[in-house]
Specification:
With 343 residues, the protein is α/β, with parallel strands linked by helices. It has a single domain, classed as Rossmann fold. It contains 12 helices and 15 strands. It has helices spanning 11-22, 38-49, 66-72, 88-93, 95-115, 166-185, 210-220, 239-251, 253-256, 277-285, 310-316, 324-337; strands at residues 2-6, 26-31, 55-60, 78-81, 121-127, 139-141, 146-148, 189-194, 196-198, 225-227, 233-238, 260-263, 270-272, 293-295, 304-305. Strands 3-2-1-4-5-8-12 form a 7-stranded parallel beta sheet, sandwiched between helices. Strands 9, 11, 13 and 15 form a 4-stranded mixed beta sheet that branches. A two-stranded antiparallel sheet has the order 6-7. Helix 3 (66-72) runs parallel beside helix 5 (95-115), helix 5 (95-115) runs parallel beside helix 6 and helix 7 packs across helix 12. The longest helix is centred in the first third of the chain and has 21 residues, at 95-115. The chain is globular, with a radius of gyration of 19 Å. The two termini are 38 Å apart.
Amino acid sequence: MRILITGGAGFIGCNLAHRLLMRGHRVTVFDNLSRPCTPHNLDWLERFADDAPGALDFIRGDVRDARAVMLAAADAEAIVHLASQVAVTTSVLDPRTDFEINALGTFNVLEAARRAPARPAVLYASTNKVYGGMSDLPIVEEETRYRYRDLPYGVPETYPLDFYSPYGCSKGAGDQYVRDYHRIYGLPTVVFRQSAIYGPRQFGVEDQGWAAHFVIAAQTGRPIVIYGDGKQVRDMLYIDDLVDLYELALARIDTVAGQIYNVGGGPEHTLSIWAEFQPLLSRLAGHPVEAARFGEWRPGDQRVCVLDIRKVERDLGWRPRVGLEEGMQRLWKWVAEHRELFR
């Protein structure tokens, strides 16, 4: 299959491209390489592709450029749209650029798919941020975490959308456009509302990719700042489990076309971002890892975000397989083996 991955040199994109190349697919990575360290991911992919069963092409392009996207998608049989502005804080500082990348960029991808001869499937990486702060949900505070009082399985796809922050608005606009291009044009599209994804080749920073950021900081002696009280809970999903799901969706597009799915670790893979992660991080480091300071809560920060993933399990038989301890150990080992990338 000929598969186009926008943002294919990013964390999720390069891991997905790697898997698809192993399966013998022809993969086109479309990326503007604007994010720090994406060239390292591309170099890694290109070295692997020399001996891979599949074939790799690279196009340096920007999803804001409709013509470039159209040309890249011309012969695609499937498109995985991952290119994105990824940080809430950045969206607040520069909402126009956030809109152009996330909303307009997604529109350009959909139009390219609609006009492509093969009518390719489009898989879209949305976000849990489309549900907003979820401030109306009753929350119980415990010693090391918050939890939902009434949602033991997490937030379902039927929960009302509330685009809190420019990032939520831009990603949410893409989310709804992707859904509607199936209903109006019959394009086989799928929306994945993703929670906290982590794993190797994630160059996490303070504003995005917090688990990887903390691991990198712990190994390089950089300060760790916690916003809020550190008891915020997220459901964590290891990258290999996410890639498994993307493969399943591509293979069974007739089953999932037109659907929206929550994608995360679910209630069995949850972690509070500091009160519970700090002891795990300290065990991995072999010494206590402390936060440099605690800052104010950030706008729209969710005290709990755990997604109900039973719908995707029902439709595709998919469930996360990599536990938190194992996943974090793999991430820690990868950072330790690639310290030169973080200097």
